[in-house]
Amino acid sequence: MGKIGIFVERYTMSDSEVMNALMRISQVAYHMGHRAEFIFRPDMWKIPEFDAIYIRAITDPLNSAYVTSRIAELRGIKVIDDSESIRICCDKVNMYTHLMKAGVPIPETRFIKPDELTWKRGKELLEELGKPLVLKAPNSSFSIYVDKAATPNEFVKIGQRYLRRADRLVVQKFIPSEFDWRVGVLGGEPLYVCQYTIPRKQWKVSTYSPQGREIYGPVKGVPLKKASHKLIDRALEAAAAIGKGLYGVDLKQVGSDFVVIEVNDNPTIAHGEEDQEAPDIYKKIVQFLLR
Amino acid sequence: MTKSRFGHLIKTARERDHIGWYELGNCYLNLWGDYDYLDHSYYVSEEYENKGLHILPTCKEMLDAYIPPIFLEKAQRANIPVPEHYISNGYYEPPVILDPINPFMIKSRTVLKPGREKAIAKSMTRNYTYAICCQKINRGDEVIKFRSVLGWSTSPKYRELSKYVMEVFHIPLATVRVIVQKKGKMLLSDISPLEFGDLRPSEYEYLEGQISWGK
Known about the structure:
The complex is a heterodimer of chains A (291) and B (215). In chain A, a hairpin with a 2-residue loop joins strand 9 and strand 10. Helices cover 32% and strands 28% of the residues of chain A. The mean pLDDT of chain A is 93. Chain A is an alpha+beta fold. Chain B has a four-stranded mixed sheet. At the A-B interface, helix 3, helix 4 and helix 5 of A face helix 2, helix 3, helix 4 and strand 4 of B.
């Protein structure tokens, strides 16, 4: 019998679909002869009691989830997400560098240092990459700190805001689409495929109302067998460029090909969404953790 | 010995983006001294690592050193004495040293007496949003800081701990917090930045003998 510790934060519990997915994993583990229990921040001392740790909380290296990951690793305990995946995926400069090194197609990308944040450089980039530019803070997540700049002035203004968070800025060519593909990958194998629809009148998968409410489009599951081979292969290449853990690879279709928008560690797994056409997600995660 | 004697060293370091060659470790050394996440020095190491070059500290090592509970766990696993510690959402018992675990705060606090625990916890956790790492201290313990330069300290009594800072954590320049117990036992407690430009003449002199800049 194996014992899985599921590291959660209070906000994990407030999302009913995510919570239902965690209850499913707990039930599946039980039926497989294992046990899974939730651990919170003050329970970190319990980490050595587990055979594996499954993190379901925001994984920025400066948050508690990263501490959980590193402590598990230092104790020789298998963990999703491993700290290297967190370090790479939570820093978009590092993530895109890994994808570029592996030859994975991504939108044309430039890394900007603080001394390059000028009107002149903004103009050059708009000429090189087209209008609008997509600006990302390296530690952006859930589409926060991702914005479009259509003029050199906007480039400087947005860039100044983002450079307060990091010493680099990611600038990319804009690729419009009605939805993003999300391919879940675990240990180098495809886990699920979804379409994340972009809400009407928006350009990002998740966005916020003026009142601060999060707006998402519908999620449509696609059976792995029916998904394009090219899509799956591209997602596997991208995941392999990062590591051997659990990833959510976001892709956009350009003609008959796919470009990788980003690779996320700790991808959302919500009951009724990512598992719509992949009911064996939970079994595969348990097997991976206790292998 | 005055600092101006080392003006050439400071100038060379600046020209080389504070990257020196460390013959003893057969590697490059990132000598910025402030290794905060996603700051310039973090990206300097990241770029070297992504080019496949051996540089210390790596990004992983920077985070290991600067995040208190990871730092303490790593020290403990290397048999370096550390204080008893725990992670909390806000509850703790004085006397204690509190270190924030959150992206917006780096300043730690030492709480010696009971009375204001709640107000301090509320502030350090940003209204209980983030965690804190609590290190127990005993009455009569002394909390001191020393400067570690390439595993060496100007003061002989800190040289052994300083050696660990370099050998275990691979942090070339650091301000090291230590809890000195009543009987004199020293417990490693925290590492924080020590910028290259803030070194003292004797520290520059030591460093000059260990680093070359041409490679």
